Amino acid sequence: MSKSRRKTKVETKLTVEKARDIVIRIKQMEGLSTHTIANYHKLFNDFERCFAKNKHMENFTVEDARRFIEWQLTEKQQFKEARWRKEKKIGVNIRSANSYLRLKKAAFTTLINEGHLEENPFSALKNIKMQQKQVDTLSDQELTQLLNSLDKSWYADFRAYVLMHVLCHQKNPN
What we know:
- By secondary structure, the chain is an all-alpha fold.
- It contains six helices and no strands.
- The protein folds into two domains: 16-124, Orthogonal Bundle (DNA polymerase, domain 1); 140-171, no CATH class.
- It has helices at 16-29, 34-51, 62-74, 94-113, 140-148, 155-171.
- The chain starts with 15 loop residues before the first helix and ends with a helix.
């Protein structure tokens, strides 16, 4: 038996502000934490900053979704309202942009489930890949020098010596 979904007429002229009210009310009723609700508020604030308040939600396209993520990464002025911050950082880091993307997907899905929209332009976007940082490691000679520098007649040094040996042999059993 297939799940029947209530068909409602998609709302036209759904402003960012009205969409915010709908999503926040539903997310609060779902019992989300105050921190998550605050993140939804930040998300809609950013949406208004990027597109202006008069943009209607039903008109958003995948290109608008990409523009929003690009704006966050390259143009968003952080700490805009903080008077004590002299330097205003431009752009968010990739991890933050991915968090905003997850929130926006969820917000649009909520609006679709409630019958206010038909499509989620953010669902086509994938998370932004983060470059792996190269970790500097000790050479064999440096590791040997470190192990030899410990005074094994002292308990703390002997414990550190054993711990380093165990950790080194876990990674490289040779």
